[in-house]
Each structure stands twice: as C-alpha cells, then as structure tokens.
Amino acid sequence: MTQRITKAVIPAAGLGTRFLPATKAMPKEMLPVVDKPAIQYVVEEAVAAGLSDVLMILGRNKNALSNHFDRVTELEQTLTAKGDQAKLQRVMESSELADVHFVRQGDPKGLGHAVLRARSHVGNEPFAVLLGDDLIDARDPLLSRMLEEFENRNATIIALLEVDPESIHLYGAAAIEATDNDDVVRVTGLVEKPSADVAPSNLAVIGRYVLRPEVFGILENTPPGKGGEIQLTDALETMAADVEGTGGVYGVVFRGRRYDTGDKGDYIKAVIQLAVERDDLGPELKPWLKQFVAGLD
C-alpha cells in the first residue's frame, strides 16, 4: 500500500549571488514577489497540496526566514490596537500557514547534500522537495498532480518542463519513454546541465520532486559530481535504473505557468505578471504598462 505523504522539504541554503548586493544581508528567498516573499509562495503551494509539515534546509545568515514564519507579538498588538484587521490577517498568515521546522545544512555541498540533511526529520517516509527559485502559479497545480502519480505508481516522481534546446544546459535533462498518459513519462536517465548536442531531450527537470525514502541511502553513497557537489540528479539517475527495487522514476510534464525567481529578468517578469492579475493592482497597472510599452523604441 502506498504510504501517504505529509512532509515537504524546502532547501534554502543558497547564497543568492546573482542578486547581490540585495542579498548581501537578506536571503534571496525573502525577496518580495509583489508583497510576499518568494518563499511564502512555495510554502503555500505545499500546504495547498496537503503537506503542512515543512522542513527548511538553511545556511548561515538565514534567520530572516525563520523570523518570517514566527509570531511577531508586538506588531500584532499594534495592529490590533489600531483596529487594522486586514493587515493583521496578512501578518498572521505566514505564522499560521504550516508547521515549519528548520535545520542547518552546514557545509554547502550541493542539493543532494541538502536533501540528505532532511533524513532525521523525514525518517522512512516518502516526501516532497520544493526548490524556492521555482514559483508555480497556484492556478496551475503541479505538486498535487505529482502526488497523485506517486499514489498510482509508488515511484519517485519529478517535474519536467519543455525548454528551448539551447537552454537545456541550464538544467538537468531527462531521457524518457512514453507511458499511456501524455503528461507522464518514464525517466530512463538524467544528465546534469548537458550541452545541447548531447542532451537526451529538451525536457528539463524543474524544482519539484516526490521522493521515496530510499533516496537517502543512495545519496549517502553518491560521490561529488558536477561542480564538486553531491547532485540530486545523480541519485535520481540511480533510482531511474530501479536499483534495489526503488520503483523507478517518472516525470510529470508541466505545461502551466512557472516563474524562475532565481534569474533577475524572470524575477522581474514574475512580479509584473502576478501584479497585473490582482484585483487591487491590475486596474492601475495595466493601462500604465500599455502606455509605457507603447513608448518604447
């Protein structure tokens, strides 16, 4: 019987060097996307999929993350005294959103090492991993679809996205076989950041995973790979071969809206796209944007 998944792991130990100097003293995960930090969107996605037990893997100088999901009694009291219930509700949303736990990664040895640090919290249970740089639009649910496939197949499930072949070197690329479902493929191999001429496909691995607990034992025995880091992709490559009866690896091909907040240009696009679709901001922003774009050379 397939074990029900209740836990989500969010690696958040990166230095955010692409956003310096903004991230010199503030974690990149706390950069605002309109009026919420990027990390809150990710936690909300996990909760919407039924995973309210969330573990964040942190690096040094990431205290702002734990503070954001904690109570701020003084601010709550001030807003209560002012009778500002709307702002009070928004402040309390993050602290009441989920049961959030934190653990330090220690040495920055890569994504695979960060996932391995979750072992004592997760135990011998399947779990989800959500990367903070990838925001999935709430109107295009991905994680819940992946959880359904896990229940159907009792196998590791990863999220795949078709990208321009010239961009595949930025991602892990999947070699695949078709299944009886157009949106689901069997993954037969994975290559971390291949050049376009050797990539097995243009299906890129994006930051959502549903993993069986056997991944921990495999990660323990995975040597450093590309960049001298322990790569989760290498462990998934082993699992794709169904080593030790791990059930193999399947991919859900995502065709919805995704925002890459780890890239400066895409981060700005995400802010604009999400802002113009809000009832409180869209009516003012849309005509301004049209006028602004019309004036561009």
UniProtKB/TrEMBL annotation:
Annotated Nucleotidyl transferase domain residues: 7-272
Alphabetically ordered keywords of this record: Nucleotidyltransferase, Transferase
Name of a matching Pfam family: NTP_transferase
Record EC number: 2.7.7.9
Gene3D superfamilies cross-referenced by the UniProt entry: Spore Coat Polysaccharide Biosynthesis Protein SpsA, Chain A
InterPro entries: GalU_uridylyltTrfase_bac/arc (IPR005771), NTP_transferase_dom (IPR005835), Nucleotide-diphossugar_trans (IPR029044)
PANTHER family, per the entry: UTP--GLUCOSE-1-PHOSPHATE URIDYLYLTRANSFERASE (PTHR43197)
NCBIfam families, A to Z: galU
Record-stated family: Belongs to the UDPGP type 2 family.
Protein name: UTP--glucose-1-phosphate uridylyltransferase
Organism encoding this protein: Agromyces atrinae
Higher taxonomy: Bacteria, Bacillati, Actinomycetota, Actinomycetes, Micrococcales
